[in-house]
């Protein structure tokens, strides 16, 4: 896999590189097969040494920032530790919530079961807060939700949404099925059925941070990946 710079670069300067990561690409080397391409290895030939500040799951698409110097790395890490960075995600979930807004406060424990999922654990879990806002409802089948995690737990959005009964579409690990098919939104013959999205339907749509050198507030937005666009475009007129 390769990434043409004009297709994924959202911003670049001497301190930071902001990228719209495609789905299916890990942020860092695979622990089992280090030869598998990852975001850092694909970008460093063009942009020099890069420091990872935060991660997106392999399946998750969207905006991610990388540091281009050790000083920028330290500054950005401190922002994340102090929860000054605002990360906003869009999620396609199975079902349509009756509420418009909700804040989930369920403690989470990573690697909490035999499937290595993040689980809700009131006794041993770490505090986790996710703010949710329903953007669009499409009949009773699927909804587009905006999610802002106020903490940074592993698989936080996926685990929280699954815990309240609205798993991400095509998130097999957390109950959303292996894929989201055309037949789930349209009545068609089985021979014409196709998968519209085959990965957890989560996209990091925006990232707000303080520039490590200039110290001004910056907001970066990442267009949807093609498979995410495909689902949204076929859903038709939403029901608010």
Rg:
18 Å
Query: Based on the structure given, which CATH architecture is correct?
Result: 2-Layer Sandwich
CATH topology: Pseudouridine synthase
Helix content: 10-25%
Continuous helix count: 5
- Spans of 5+ residues with little confidence (pLDDT < 50)? none
SS content category: alpha+beta
Gross morphology is globular
Number of strands: 14
CATH class: Alpha Beta
**Per DSSP, what share of the residues sits in E-state strands of 2 or more residues?**
25-35%
Mean pLDDT: 92
Main sheet makeup: 10 strands, mixed
Structure description:
The protein is α+β, with helices and mostly antiparallel strands and 240 residues long. The protein has one domain (5-234): Pseudouridine synthase (2-Layer Sandwich), CATH 3.30.2350.10. The protein is 18% helix and 31% strand. The protein has 5 helices and 14 strands. Strands 1, 2, 3, 4, 5, 6, 9, 10, 13 and 14 form a 10-stranded mixed beta sheet that branches. A two-stranded antiparallel sheet has the order 7-8. Strands 11-12 form a two-stranded antiparallel ribbon. β1 (9-12) and β2 form a beta hairpin. The model has no long low-confidence stretch (mean pLDDT 92).
In short:
Helix content is 18%, strand content 31%. It is of the alpha+beta class and 240 residues long. The longest helix has 12 residues, at 70-81.
